[in-house]
Amino acid sequence: MNTTQTVTSFAQPEQLYAAVDLGSNSFHMVVVRVSAGSVHTIGKVKQKVRLAAGLDENMYLDQASLERGWKCLEIFAERLQDIPLANIKIVGTATLRLAANADVFIKRAEQILQHKLNIIDGEEEARQIYLGVAYTSANQGNSLVIDIGGASTEIIVGNDMSPIHLVSLNMGCVTFKERFFADGVISSQAFEHAIEHAKALLNPVTNEFLNFSWQQCLGASGTPQAIVEILVTQGISDAIRLDYLHNLRQQCIDCTSIDLLEIDGLTEARRAIFPSGLAILIALFEQLSIEEMQISGGALREGLIYGMLDNMQQNDRRAQTLEQTIERFHIDSTHAHRVKNLSLNLFKQVQNQIDLRKIDCEPILIAASMLSELGMHIEYKQFHLHGAYILSYLPLVGYTQQQQTGIKALVQSHRQEIKLEIFETFHADVRDILMVLSRILRLSSILSIRRKDHMLAEFSLTIKEGNWTIQFPEKWLKSHPLIDAELANEKWQQHKVGWKLECF
């Protein structure tokens, strides 16, 4: 939860909150500060404990895994001393649900943490995961949310803040690693067995989920996050798609063993459990007919945090993010809204002439329009490049990772020379739409250059065979030589990359 979130209904002074998630692969702790109506992440700790790897055939945790867990909690305990007990929530998930000697771990853990540890069932885990995703990844319509953990996988369909249908299945990247890749060999046969077993576990619930229609699929951290990092490293700015997963499976097989597994973008910490997590994800894609998956901004820990903040109003998280960013970086708010409104005017005219429905692109255009002057916080001359740099490291709550990458590309390309290589890493469908949005934002920035509403012109846009023509009222351009000159330069810039623009 690398983010800041507005909470408008808090009247109390600054407070600290913490959520601890004792997962089957990793233990996580997140600490937030609630101050002046906002939630700020001020600390995160993650340790690979691989608790599930310590389960024997009788479902007992071995001593080594117990010790790894307790040692990690000693680190967490020191940080938790600074936080009011009422503001702490600690939960255990799949492995502690399954372990026959979980009571041994829990007793010692509670002594270390000086706080009660709650073992939540699979449905509650799924519900909390969905809430964490919903709070940090705004959505419209139904969303399918998937979280592949170390020993369980949660699948949820929900709408806005309400989960509609959810399940938790006993399959995870650690348990599958121990079962199908235990000898460290990565083979076609190992993948096939893992995928088929995952599909067998999915079979009883498949029809229930296929009966729902969803507008987007969101992956919560873990394996999906690792895959996106690999795609980005390999020059692919896109959602997760089944053909990418099949390609990664072959890359794994070509490496022959976990010890030799080297894929550009795959971290050392993820290497051992990557093939098993990938097999589960392939099964999910194939069984549930998923076309593409985006990465969410949160998961279980975020759900626990926001569950404690029960007074938080559920306002539009994207709008909150944009207004907070505008304030934080001293962007001219009036002008940001002016550029946004001009962009939406153009967008609606373009929408009537070009099919832009392949991606949810309006939120990308709105954000890029309102944040187009973000880089002025640094300096003017190259402010579009500075803005793109800031957006490389600035999480935007309510936007998927692909949307954030698109926003960055639009801000980077909205002025000066057009560089088509900015869009080369996107999937073809996404790339074409982003270039259309870039043309819209470039024109909006020019038409609002006087920074006064009464100076804005009425205009109409027509598009024929990729050629854009903007028509203004008679003699309007002649009476506005600054905008006329800027449009003439823009016409030349677009001509250089093969785009055609006419203005009269």
Automatic annotation (TrEMBL):
Keywords: Hydrolase. It catalyses: guanosine 3'-diphosphate 5'-triphosphate + H2O = guanosine 3',5'-bis(diphosphate) + phosphate + H(+). Residues 318-491 form the Ppx/GppA phosphatase C-terminal domain. Gene3D superfamilies: 3.30.420.40, Exopolyphosphatase. Domain 2, Hypothetical protein af1432. The keyword Hydrolase applies. It comes from the Bacteria. InterPro entries: ATPase_NBD (IPR043129), GppA/Ppx_hydrolase (IPR050273), Guo-5TP_3DP_PyrP (IPR023709), Ppx_GppA_C (IPR048950), Ppx_GppA_N (IPR003695), PyroPPase_GppA_Ppx (IPR030673). Its EC number is 3.6.1.40. It is an enzyme of class 3 (hydrolase). Residues 30-311 form the Ppx/GppA phosphatase N-terminal domain. Pathway: Purine metabolism; ppGpp biosynthesis; ppGpp from GTP: step 2/2. Belongs to the GppA/Ppx family. GppA subfamily. Catalyzes the conversion of pppGpp to ppGpp. Guanosine pentaphosphate (pppGpp) is a cytoplasmic signaling molecule which together with ppGpp controls the 'stringent response', an adaptive process that allows bacteria to respond to amino acid starvation, resulting in the coordinated regulation of numerous cellular activities. This is Guanosine-5'-triphosphate,3'-diphosphate pyrophosphatase.
